[in-house]
Design a protein that fits this description.
Elements lengths: L4 E12 L2 E13 L4 E5 L6 H8 L7 E6 L2 E2 L5 H11 E4 L11 H11 L5 H10 L15 H13 L5 E5 L7 H16 L3 E5 L3 H6 L2 E6 L2 E2 L3
Parallel strand pairs: 3-8, 3-9, 6-7, 7-8
Antiparallel strand pairs: 1-2, 1-4, 4-5, 9-10
Helix pairs in contact: 3-5
Bound molecules: adenosine-5'-triphosphate.
The site of adenosine-5'-triphosphate has 12 residues, from strand 1, strand 2 and helix 1.
């Protein structure tokens, strides 16, 4: 089966003056449709770097990234951005909402950028996430839990095959974390490939599979 998203032998170096950091040292990861994978590891182990490369926001120095069998890495930024808008939803640590737009407006914009305007789907999504009543609210007026759900709605706006999430439950209380996790699992069951970077034991414990990163390498079981 073709992986929904895969990293093959990724390398990423950072150079700051004399100092060189090997953030990724040959990392291979795949996530299939319908799977929820948790990437865990100590601070500085390369998790954010891996996520940025998987999303095509950063270019690896070696190795490659494919989404749905198509190479994403080593392409002009414009092409990567187009592939990302259509195929990848992202949830960031800080929310990805534009403050001057409403919740519905934020979702509409993400759909338009992907060329996939679809109001019935948008409304279903907001209802499924339990924030339909906040559709007309400006992003700045949301509570932390509402903003997390709205961010997830933006990430899922264009029905991406792949969902990448960086600490999606980092700022949430246990109850809200549980419901956001349940939503991510239900998206995975519906066929989305979900990869979550997290420090949370609850996220790692419920994942279908767990990938441990240590010093820029995947630790073998
Ligand atoms: N832009 C950069 N320039 C130089 N070094 C960097 C840069 N970004 C990351 N690094 C270094 O690369 C290594 C991996 O960083 P990364 O942010 O991927 O780790 P992480 O596992 O996401 O950490 P955390 O859990 O603290 O967010 C670290 O040693 C970090 O200092």
């Amino acid at each position: 089966m073709t992986a929904a998203i895969e990293a093959v032998e990724l390398y990423r170096f950072y150079r700051a003056g004399e100092e060189e950091t090997l953030a990724l040292r040959g990392v291979s990861v795949r996530v299939d449709a319908g799977e929820l994978v948790a990437v865990v590891g100590p601070s500085g182990s390369g998790k954010s770097t891996l996520l940025a490369c998987l999303a095509g926001l950063d270019e690896p120095d070696g190795g490659l990234v494919r989404i749905g069998g198509l190479r994403l890495s080593h392409r002009p930024e414009r092409e990567r951005a187009a592939m990302r808008a259509r195929g990848i939803g992202m949830v960031f640590q800080t929310d990805n909402l534009l403050p001057h737009l409403t919740v519905a407006g934020n979702v509409d914009l993400a759909q338009r950028l992907a060329g996939r305007a679809n109001r019935p789907y948008r409304d279903r999504l907001l209802a499924e996430l339990g924030i339909a009543s906040r559709a007309g609210a400006l992003a700045t007026t949301l509570s932390g839990g509402e903003a997390a759900r709205a961010g997830l709605a933006v990430a899922l706006a264009a029905e991406p095959a792949v969902l990448l999430a960086d600490e999606p439950t980092g700022e949430l209380d246990d109850t809200t974390e549980g419901s956001v996790l349940a939503l991510l699992h239900s998206r995975a069951r519906a066929g989305t490939a979900v990869l979550i970077v997290s420090h949370s034991p609850a996220v790692a414990a419920t994942a279908d599979r767990r990938v441990d990163l240590v010093d820029g390498r995947v630790r073998d079981e």
